[in-house]
Amino acid sequence: MTSAEMHVETYLSRIGFAGPAEPSLEVLRSVHTCHLLSVPFENLTVHSGGRVHLALPLLYDKIVTQRRGGFCFENNGLFSWLLSTLGFQVTLLSGQVRNHITCRYGPPFDHLVLMVSLDGQRWLCDVGFGASGFSAPLSLDTSGPQEQGHRVYRIRKDKKMHFVEWQQEENRGAHGDWTQIYKFTLEPQRLEDFEEMCQYHQSSPSSIFFCKSICTILKPGGRLSYIGRRLTSTTFPTEGTVLETTTRELKDEEIPGILAEEFKVVLKSPLIPKDEEITPPPVMY
Known about the structure:
Number of helices: 7
Mean pLDDT: 93
Distance between the termini: 37 Å
Largest sheet: 8 strands, antiparallel
Number of strands: 13
Structural class: alpha+beta
Radius of gyration: 18 Å
């Protein structure tokens, strides 16, 4: 499938974007946020008898035609194709996610992120990182704080590596602690370079994607997340309010209906809900 066969208007309609789609910063920010509000971060193919492969026609069919979501390799891989087709200069980058168990980073190609070069400036785009992700592109040309709602992000550079970090609302400020999310280099990559790690995350007991069935999506003012047999709704804080989270347990027979109603995800094969402990990976990085 070539860019001419992508059906850009269908993709833009899928993510709820309307208006001229020229390669501008305003459009980049808008399609980034629209994508997160419309396409869930999910790994349900892994838990319904399927397998994810990184061919662009397959990703387009899944996310646009079938109105599904995906994890980073899928969402960011397809999003890079959309941006390129719209005329943006896009570079695929290899990220390494900080493991919350070992507090060390995963291997190269653990995460796929995008750099967009536009009018002499560089922007980090990521529509495939779930609940910890940022809703609008981050500037790669500043080391200062970048506020987005109840969170503050920054990109810190150390030699050849760039580190994405954040502060929560209650921790915000010059003396607040920064939480490391992932690191990456600016070396250009190809989508096929991520195939090995894509397969790893579908089969390793050290990967959250193998151990837990997940579906989460950004909502205006909050986030909705399904994991295993739980549904969690989060309302982001505004001035004078605090973060609110409610969780309810689900019965197996409820889950397909919840996925269809709340996430607009309809699976072709039965889902096997999963929420197992993650085996700590060997510390190598």
